[in-house]
Amino acid sequence: MKLYTYFRSSAAYRVRIALNLKGIAVEMVPVQLVKDGGEQTKPDYLARNPQGLVPALELDDGTVLTQSLAIIEYLEQVRPMPRLVPPDPIMAAKVRAVALAIACDTHPLNNLRVLNYLKGPLGHSQAEVDAWYRYWIVEGGLQAVERLITGDPFCFGAAPTLADVVLVPQVFNARRFDVALDHLPKILAVDAACARLEAFAKAHPTQQADAA
Amino acid sequence: MKLYTYFRSSAAYRVRIALNLKGIAVEMVPVQLVKDGGEQTKPDYLARNPQGLVPALELDDGTVLTQSLAIIEYLEQVRPMPRLVPPDPIMAAKVRAVALAIACDTHPLNNLRVLNYLKGPLGHSQAEVDAWYRYWIVEGGLQAVERLITGDPFCFGAAPTLADVVLVPQVFNARRFDVALDHLPKILAVDAACARLEAFAKAHPTQQADAA
Is the ipTM of this complex over 0.90? Predict the structure, then answer.
């Protein structure tokens, strides 16, 4: 399998963590999102993923799967252990709700193409764009996530789940933009617990071959 | 069970469709999102859903589930038939990818609180906000969704799936804001096929008790 990835894409980062947790080795294919208008906007890549976003997972038969959470649910079906979504339906819903609070309500507002729209068509300064970025990380999701998780030591108990897989890349983004997280102690504790696991450490943006 | 809903919320609309398709009756509890600063921002509602968003599904034991897609996956586990996510892992990933392309990359950009930020802190006119809204519906997701679905007659074949459940409310939003969809014939055909099903028709915003 091949994972089309970009070191700093938090959606690709999620899939890298999930692959590592499940012990699945794939070929990493870096996609240059920033240089020359972005490789993801070129016909070659759009043929694989019409959304022009990373990640995309290409299976050995050429089938391409897109959307990080759909890819992780696929991995969960074909390689169930260790489980990232608990079997109990209520616990599964709580885990998925945290993942979606970040994947739907936090991260998309700060995607590269959205920041470009704020700077381009809407003419905002870098300072205004940065304020937008910081606002949505906390108000968009992390503040609520702090109340939705137990955090002992992972979001929902003794082992990492899909919630941790999605939370850690968002915390990385928050730190990169100097967002204050001191008022979110459970999230900080979960992030620290995850950082001690090799599956998370190896998926970190700075550990990728395409890290700039 | 109780569904905290708002007639025009497309996330609540998704859950209404899924409940109808599965034949699950729930008590509908309307949440007034727009009047008086929004009932969803008040302590009573925040105690149920710290994100301050609809929908939320309250189970008979008082457990509250949030995030529309997490709620629908829960319903899929406790009431598997008719299936909204196909059992084949690759087909499941394709269905979820379409749902997520809308739920993550289209809808959140046009959420009420985001439009309020554009109007408030960023000082944009209604015309600029409307242009933003229209841009993200098409560029954010529907253009790619048109290429990801088969559309015969539903997104992925003979029966509606999670993809249709999420697509139809987004098409409703597009129409409400006069977004041209003529260049997306498969999406229009799917929407028409869904409209003929009672489960979709009864979930429509205009059919809700709280419709303004």
Answer: yes
